[in-house]
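User: My instructor asked us to take a sequence, write out its structure as tokens, and then describe one feature of it. I'm not sure where to start. Here is the sequence I was given:
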Amino acid sequence: MANEDQGWEWQPGIPRWVQVYEEIKRQIETGELLPDDQVPSVLQLQAIYGIATATGQKVHRALRADGLIFTSPGMGSFVKAQGK
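Assistant: Let's start with the prediction itself. The structure tokens for your sequence are:
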């Protein structure tokens, strides 16, 4: 799922933050992103998906709240090992 310029289409009726969240979650669950891998920053999410800063921040908050990522100040956000 990325913006239309990259060949992806947004699903109507589903908030964009949810669609980006689901894509990152899928990458974690399928092993595309492994524990301790860095996840795209808010600015990178903007560039990849064409979303607003606030939308990217909401994606990160939701991923943290669901225990999928952790954030290290000054370093970035990383995939959390499941079960920890």
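For the description part of your assignment, you could build on this observation: Helices lie at 16-29, 42-49, 53-65. Try explaining in your own words what that tells you about the chain.
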